[in-house]
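ok here's Importin N-terminal domain-containing protein:
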Amino acid sequence: MNVANTSVPVPQSIEDVEQLVKRLYQPGSPRVITQINERLQQLQLSAEGWQVADALLGSSDRNVRFFAALTFTVKLNNDGATLDAETAQSVQTRLISWLVRLVRDGEGALVTRKLCLTLTTYYLRTPTLWQRPLLHVASSMQNGDALPESSVDTARGMDVAIQNLDVNQIVALLWLSSTVAVEIGRMENNTPGHAQLHNQMEVIVQDASSLMGRAFSQSTNDANAKVKGEALKSFQTWVDYAQPMWPRKPEALQFLRQLVPAAAQCLLDPTLQRDALDSFRDILESYTSFFQPQDMQLLAHLISEHLQPVLLQALQDKDPEGLPYGQMVIAYGAANIQQVVEQPDNAEGSGTIIKLHFDMLKAPGYPGDEDELSIQSIEFWNTYIEYVNDLTFSKDSDDPNPSWFGYARSVLNQTVELLWAKMRTPTNVIGKEWTDAESEAFREFRLDATDLMLSIYVFLGKDMLRQLVELALHSLEAKQWRAVEAALFCLNALADNVLEDEPSEPILATLFGSSLFRDVANFSLNIPSQARRTAIDILGSYGQYIERHAEYLPDTVRFLFASLETGQLANTAAKSIVALCSTCRVSLTSELDGFLQQYQRFLGGPTSDPYTKEKVLGAIAAIVQALRPESAKIRPLLALLENVEKDVQMAKDSAAGGDAEMAELMGVTALTCLASIGKGMQVPEDIPIDIYDEDEQQPGKPNFWDGQEGQAVQQRIMGCFSVLQVLGNNGDAIEAACMVLKSGFAEVEPGPFVLPPSITVSFLQQCSIGTPQLESVLSAACTLITQHSRSDSKRIDAEVDAICQQVASFVHQLRGPSADPGVAQGCTDVLCRLMPHYAHILFGDAAALSSQLQPLLDFTLQAIDGQDPFPKRSAQDLWTKLIKPPVAAMPDDVVTRVNRVVTAYGPQIAQTLIRQIGGLGQRSELDGLCEPLKALITNQPAAKGWLEAALFSEAFPHTSAEVGDAEKRRFLQQLIGLRGDGRKTKDVVRAFYAACRGTVVSYGP
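and the structure:
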């Protein structure tokens, strides 16, 4: 039946409601429940609503009774606070009476729980204080019907009130107790009414504790197991309530703490054990301090004597039912980490917990597949090593090591070995059966385990390194390649830490001096590809060590180039070749000819693709860079460029033949390879320039790259740009070309890729507003200007002027920053780079761009007033520099012209900033807006008048009625009074912005 399209009248009588529920109710249909509830709420608006809901509870239909309780709940939520004392008393009596009668008659959980919620809602919403709700309801149950609250004998207490109640009545009281704790726990303790309810909970907990104690004391049978299970849930609910509310109220907490021994017995009951494990684990994880020392001793005993055998058997059988037992052990260990670390002689507390954590890692199965506990145990070991490291590094260096120090080292050494064993990859047969989720879980375990090992290395140091190297070598000797791979994987993760530790070098020598890399380079051996891949990664990670020990280079490089020709290893090998050649470039210069020959052989193989070609060319270029003198670089560099030129020609031929797809592929490949060569040819930051080359760097002698041979190489490089003529507007090609240009910008001395500035300018001039990746070209222009703004660089006024002319053309074509925010940001960034050394390009008396100055500045103000964050940020930076120019680096006439422009634009910039601060901008943009605002206040005497005019202008946004003339004046006075104080100005601006947006109550003193 489609209830959404059914016309259902508002019920007028009890019979109507019963028919309504019978007609519409479908179990599990939220839409139907909502419709019924809506109609019942319409009924509640009448004066007879209470009586109708009351009468509905007597219906023979369980669903009707459920909605009757729901009706009471909604009615109390809506009208409870307005009830007078007499009506409130009447409602309370009705609800208790129905709960007592329905529970006595065997009412099910659905209606009973809803009535418990209704009673709790009554307790929370009505103004009449209900002193002891649990005791009142329990006494009424004992009486057989609702008692007046005044008739309840509080002196006898809860123990007497519940002594003759049956199982169903105890369970209903436990539900009511839990509901009270949950609902009041959701209320903040920030109003007098709420505070009173929370204070009253310190009394109610006494009754709740007696109730739970009675439930826990029941003898063992099926009916009582239900009672104990509900008591366990109620216990956890009350503990959850107590955690944030009673941190400094041990008297109230004690009523719950005294239940721990009884609740803990549920851990021994087979029918309750799973629930008990979940409850105690949750408390251990979230509220450790709830348990007192004697509680922890009890739990340790139960784990040792009763849970340990079950867990060990489950681990052996790969039984997933053992998971909650292991989780309990993990939670207990983390919660008692001080005892576990510092009291190794405590057999139950420390000994059992450490042993069980070892057993979890020893258990058969792979993490993420059959073994879930080893993954979760990582959290315990992280807690363990964090505690050990904190204590170790907080003590004075002269202090003796604590007594537990040796034990902790032994524990962590064993942990490392167990983790290593657990990290071994599965065989192909097993791996193929894994789902994606299982494979991902195993990968995450390995990553988490290596993160843990990094923390352990801080404590164990080179002893741990020696341990892992020995495990690798023993496994290598036995040809256990998956074990070798696991050890290398761990060593790879430790590389950064190990390389900082000089005493580690002899240990590394045993690994790199072994047959490892000769063996993995022998592709006739049946070695898992993952082992070879991890060995490749090791070479990239330990390049600094290999650089210092060139004797290991032949084996490692041969292995990498052999791997380059293997499909599964090619990309990883290419990446490590770049890292190794870049780091060890000086030591590899004698191998350069061999590398060039290997590269030519590689080009004819199946693994030659754009990625591998780019990486290997960059690696060889790094070795070329290390050659001395500069003239020695010509021959090998030309050999590299020949490979690029072949791709360029292939792209042109493909385009001529109509194969546009192949033309784009080869053309982009050519330019990315050229960019990679340029990057490889960059002088490393940590290598000083050799000023003693025999044939160059002599006083008065031109630099080699300015000579005929050097210029010929540059012409070859620039010739590769011709491929852009056949690629059309290919964004990837344009971006790669920009990377080629930028590779020379970072150099401080002439070099093959330090191209003339005119090349970058010409590239920009060939672009239009629709050119893909125009942002990259503008970024290259910015970098060029920045590089030629250094004090030791040559000024390029003509080129910068040409760049600005092109930028002005782009701005004119855009007609507003929002048309293309990326290009707008790039154009504004170029203008920013003019300050201070090229400011005369825009502001000099003879500036060719003087006629276009106003459109450019108007464009940047539009950016600040717009919605796009990136051009807005660049424009703010520009105006900050204009308002507060670095006068020492600028000619006087330019400074004067800039000041005139700022004075002319002062009112406009002030209005733009105030509009944004007045509510049009985003909160995240306020700090950026404060920069030009502070500059305006500190550098322009007329700033106060400009800002005042902006605040009272019609253009000021009307975002909140709370900000009037008085608030604006106060804001202005604060700004001017702070005189550009950065932090305080930002605070004042944020407060004013919040007031304008209406997110604060008021804006005033």
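+1. The radius of gyration is 39 Å.
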